[in-house]
Amino acid sequence: xxxxxxxxxxxxxxxxxxxxxxxxxxxxxxxxxxxxxxxxxxxxxxxxxxxxxxxxxxxxxxxxxxxxxxxxxxxxxxxxxxxxxxxxxxxxxxxxxxxxxxxxxxxxxxxxxxxxxxxxxxxxxxxxxxxxxxxxxxxxxxxxxxxxxxxxxxxxxxxxxxxxxxxxxxxxxxxxxxxxxxxxxxxxxxxxxxxxxxxxxxxxxxxxxxxxxxxxxxxxxxxxxxxxxxxxxxxxxxxxxxxxxxxxxxxxxxxxxxxxxxxxxxxxxxxxxxxxxxxx
Length: 280
Hints:
Layout (H helix, E strand, L loop, with lengths): L2 H17 L25 E7 L6 H9 L6 E7 L6 H9 L5 E5 L5 H11 L4 E4 L5 E2 L3 H11 L3 E11 L32 E4 H6 L13 H12 L1 E13 L5 H4 L2 H22 L3
Parallel strand pairs: 1-2, 1-4, 2-3, 6-8
Antiparallel strand pairs: 4-7, 5-8, 6-7
């Protein structure tokens, strides 16, 4: 859309939310629940990655985390019953870096794997990383600093860039900023960006990622909606994530019908919650 049409569409949607008593007004002032995990506070941030048959890329993901310019992290990789040598690749990295951990799970359900990783995590914060994507060296430090300095944020979301199958940045597509994000407009947008870095306590407060009807898609969108209804979702205005485009990308292979269904379900649930928050 051009800017004028985008603005008009946005205003029509806002009027709809207000008419449906689903409009959320003002800033959020609640503080995320106190951190109640970790052992001795040695780990500040936990990276969680579900993986299935990604032997070709998982090493690149691991190396991007190892390149972080802070050291107080752990990397939890949850394998979903891979039939290639993904687990062996992970074990080879584990042999040289005790911060890398592998959970072997035979249920190939993304939400299940995310929840296993979150429950096992010792960090105050949870940074998501898909198995074929990468972090930047400043990613973990920058995301943790923003959450440290903004106590009402339940979640921090950065910008991301796109790369090809070989890891080369695709400059023609530019930086993806999701500048239209706010807690109301997200109900008509497909997402809020990446990287998503959460307070672990917030994920647990909302019962984790939906393992039922949103097990394979939309689970993160659903949780972003829930978080934004109670806490601030803060924006980190830097590229902290690299999204790899390739023919075997899971998002490309999912059916459009399923994606529309799951996002619609998440939105309908959000409308019901918002009405209740507004006393209707």
